[in-house]
Amino acid sequence: MLKVLFLGTSGSMPTVARNLPSILIKRDGETILFDCGEGTQRQMMRCRTGIHLSSIFISHWHADHFLGLPGLIHTMSFLNRSDKLNVYGPRWGGIPYLLALINPQFQVDFVEVAPGDMIELGSFSMRVFAVDHGIGACGYVFEEHERPGKFDRRKAEELGLKPGPLYKTLQNGESVLIGDHVVTPEHVIGPKRPGRKIVYTGDTRPSDTVVQAAENADLLIHEATLAGDLDAYANAVGHSTASEAAQIARKADVVKLILTHISSRYSNTAPLLAEARLIFRNTYVAEDLLEIEVPYRDQLD
Fold first, then answer.
1. In the chain, which residues have pLDDT < 70?
2. What pLDDT score does 75 carry?
3. Do the strands 108-112 and 118-121 form a parallel or antiparallel pair, or are they unpaired?
4. Which residues contact 196 (CB under 8 A, 6 or more apart)?
């Protein structure tokens, strides 16, 4: 099961309803964090997620995206964590000072990443891509490895195979002998199927690199700090409007778009949602503590 939990959905400063940016990915016992705004650990406690994170991925070193790290790591130390924690993020000269401030009682490795990097994490990978926000900001593509094709039981029975151990042999990629003919996996197993793909932009202006990274994604999480009437201001401060995020989703042919990093000026997000849906219908605005499940695309057919 693959779930996404929005711990914080505000941009730049918190509001009564919205915490600072942080998004949790839960998959088969692993928990990954995108960004860690101030107050993230309390949001995790509210959702009863636990705080034993596998990895943390920081999109950039603006304060609203990482100031939750000291408190979160301190709490991990207080709870006697012993496993190493990897914190990935773009180059930043302040990391030694941040480590000195945190003074963790377990190993914390800050791993520098740059666009084009691929981080293999078992049965999925994390790819780093460039965004347009200055200061070396980046986005992340979470992508599962390909899954085996579907086993065609009807075809297997037509070839003389009965349910049993030989099915597993074929599913393991080995051929079997039935009478005087060989049945290969290709005879009964369809083409490999894609895993799920989630793209997180962090903060960015609309960008071709985001379109390329998000191509055919099951879920695009794109910032939408402002409404379209403030597009000039959005351009000046390196952010996107809701309609610009929707245009990216349409160009990339994603399944679902969720808007986040909402400016504190919008207590009512209906205008943001309306302008985005004029361009890309399957759009939603994230609220704090929203949890969604990301299905396999072939389950939607």
1. 170, 188, 301
2. 94
3. unpaired
4. 2, 143, 144, 218, 219, 294, 295, 296, 297
pLDDT computed for residue 299 by the predictor = 74
State the helix-helix crossing angle for 270-277 and 242-252, rounded to 10 degrees.
30
Residue type for position 230: L
- Domain residue spans of the chain: 2-147+193-299, 153-188
State the chain's maximal CA–CA distance in angstroms: 74
Q: Going by C-beta distance under 8 Å and a sequence separation of 6 or more, which residues neighbour residue 138? A: 59, 60, 90, 113, 114, 115, 128, 129, 130, 131, 202
Quote the pLDDT of residue 164.
72
Distance of CA 230 to the CA centre of its chain: 27
C-alpha dihedral over 15, 17, 19, 24, to 10 degrees? -160
Q: What are phi and psi of 253, to 5 degrees?
A: 55, 50
Q: How far is CA 20 from CA 73, 86, 298, in A?
A: 17, 21, 34
* Per-residue pLDDT, 301: 59
- At residue 179, the pLDDT reads 72
Beta bridge partners of 119: 126
Q: Are 275 and 285 in contact (CB under 8 A)?
A: no
pTM, to two decimals: 0.91
The one catalytic residue among 35, 64, 218, 288: 64
* 301 tagged catalytic: no
* Per-residue pLDDT tens digits for 248-264: 999 999 999 999 999 99
CATH topology of domain 2-147+193-299: Metallo-beta-lactamase; Chain A (3.60.15)
User: At a CB cut-off of 8 Å and minimum separation 6, what does 63 contact?
Assistant: 38
